[in-house]
Amino acid sequence: MTEYIDSYRAKINEASTRSDFPEITDSETPVWRGNPSMLSMADKYILAVLVFLVHLLFFIGDPADAPEGEGQVNAIIGIIFFLVDKTGVMGFVVVMLVLTKVNHYANFSTSGNWTSTWLMLCALIPFAWKALEIISWASGIAGTEFDNPLPAWQYVWFLPLGAVMAGLMALLTLFYQRSFQYAITDRRVHIRKNFMHFDSSVHGIAFQKIENLKADPTLLGRLLGFGNVHVVTGSGVGLQVESLGMSVGAGAVGDAAPAGTPVGVKKVLSMLFGFITKQRQRTVLNQDPADCLYGIRNPMKIYRLINELMDANIGPTGQAVPDSEQA
Length: 327
Prior knowledge:
single chain, alpha+beta, 4-stranded antiparallel β-sheet
């Protein structure tokens, strides 16, 4: 082993690492362990803040008076307050649906199904709340007596709803970040996932099977010292080809509609579902934290560490080095 590798071996708690990674065999020696840094999840925290700001806008937009005076900024603010006042809950729903669509279509790291579901839920809660009021009012006219279980809707509810939904997103993001653990031994790269005890996976990648290694810290990652290290094998582990067009689109939604549904209704459902599910297409390295060393600190140093361990295992001739020679 090189001096560089030994410097990492001297820092790691071997007993703790073996306890957290029971799949590490007795013939392996732990060299490094880590997990995604909190800053690597910054995009999800930013999205949570953005959702809170949308709630805050509709909270203050209804009772607030438009700013006085001339100027483009005052004019824009005045138009926003006017639209908030006139559109109410429906305006909020439209803004949130547009945000959901833009986030999903852009195919960012925040464009997954869980995030899109959360954004849709943020949009539908005030809508359902207001709908219950309308149903209760209509039932009173019809004499059917439906009592709304919720208090009367007011714009003030946007503030606590925004705080709760943004806080929930931040909390789930924290749990998600901590659900991934990575370890490197003198023989393998180990990746573990345990998200809230119901989404678990583990796999180890032997150095002999690694065909390509890539570190790709983003601009923010270079400034703050984190990034991804992708371990690509000949079987395709570490690669992700994304082609998320209209594979589940108009025809599928129309066919899934209940029997007897009018053709016009099927077309409307197909258009709405297609609008939400359509994404731009791209081919990238797998950015899933369960398939790469995601958002780790000092990615270039870990990239060098894996390379040196690969050299120690494979040797200059491309053949696996015997255990006696590795020691």
